[in-house]
Amino acid sequence: MRLFSLICRENKERRKRLYPKLRDDRDLWVLLLKIEKNLAEQHREKGCACGGRLHRARYRRKPRGGPEWLGEEYEWRESFCCEREGCRRRATPPSVLYFGRRVYYGLVMILVSALRQGPTAQSGEKIRRWLGVDLRTIRRWQHWWREVFPGLAFWRGLRGSAWAMLPVEELPLALWESIQGEDLRRRTQRLMCFFLPLTEHGN
Questions:
Q1: In whole angstroms, what is the distance from residue 9 CA to residue 30 CA?
Q2: pTM exceeding the 0.70 threshold for the entire prediction
Q3: What pLDDT shows up at residue 114?
Q4: Edge to edge, what strands does the sheet with 90-91 contain?
Q5: Is the dihedral of CA 187, 94, 203, 166 positive or negative?
Q6: Average pLDDT, integer, range 61-81
Q7: CB 89 within 8 A of CB 48
Q8: Contacting residues for 112 by C-beta, under 8 A, at least 6 apart
Q9: Helix H segments across the chain?
Q10: Are 111 and 23 a contacting pair, CB within 8 Å?
Q11: So where are the chain's domains?
């Protein structure tokens, strides 16, 4: 039997208890916001490709799916604009909060997709009640993981690595379960950072 299947079986009870609670983990959201700010500052310090300095030009988002107690600071997408006349190029750093242009927080999109997989897969209706995600949206996400994600240059570029050996039909759950460590919060942080290259271009 495949290693991933064994891991799923060993951890299925833990996933049933913990994964749905991740969305409401206050410490996890605080950690993600801190990473978001650090990524933005690193991006600003690099400056524009033309050599100009970057000025803050963040913009408002209306993200869905997060816990009700999230503050206003979670509703802004960090972004910058070059100061040089004739350039004014926008520079938007990668994000651990947002997954491209999707209206749901990246964590929610990945969490919902993972909960629909594996031996303990939850029903779409149950997920809708938990997290308020429309069933049609869930189906679109599942289609993206099965049909679109495997064809992205990001994933194809991982050929030859341990990541690439994971079964595509079991993503993103397989990625989550393959990350070592007992602290689910830290494993989730690593997973969100893994997807950083995708968040700059709105895949």
A1: 31
A2: yes
A3: 87
A4: 54-56, 80-82, 90-91
A5: negative
A6: 93
A7: yes
A8: 65, 127, 131, 133, 138, 141
A9: 3-22, 26-46, 106-115, 124-131, 135-143, 153-156, 173-178, 184-194, 196-199
A10: yes
A11: 3-199
